[in-house]
Write a structure and sequence with these properties.
Elements: E1 13-16, H1 23-33, E2 38-41, H2 43-49, E3 57-61, E4 67-72, H3 76-87
Parallel strand pairs: 1-2
Antiparallel strand pairs: 3-4
């Protein structure tokens, strides 16, 4: 999805909220899964700050930096539809 919509302005960042995982473990996971987007180490403090109690939790943030939607869980078709709708906004 990140590559598909990159030219439309989509940026994807993932935040690892598992405090026990090292940066190297996260990099290894990303390589194994073929993830191409940016992965950040956040730990549990970041999860608590943003009210993340289940993974994955997706936040949609507009160009102004405002959170415009939030989804818990993973539904590829629903995620794609949400992205398309948000990118179509003026």
């Amino acid at each position: 999805m990140a590559e598909k919509h990159k030219e439309k302005g989509l940026a994807v960042l993932a935040v690892n909220t598992h405090a026990r995982e090292t940066a190297e473990q996260v990099k290894s996971f990303a390589r194994e899964k073929g993830l191409k987007h940016t992965l950040l180490q956040g730990g549990t403090a970041v999860a608590h700050k943003y009210g993340v109690y289940a993974t994955p939790t997706t936040f949609f943030i507009d160009k102004a930096g405002a959170v415009v939607a939030r989804e818990v869980g993973f539904d590829a078709a629903g995620l794609e539809a949400k992205i398309a709708a948000l990118l179509a906004r003026p």
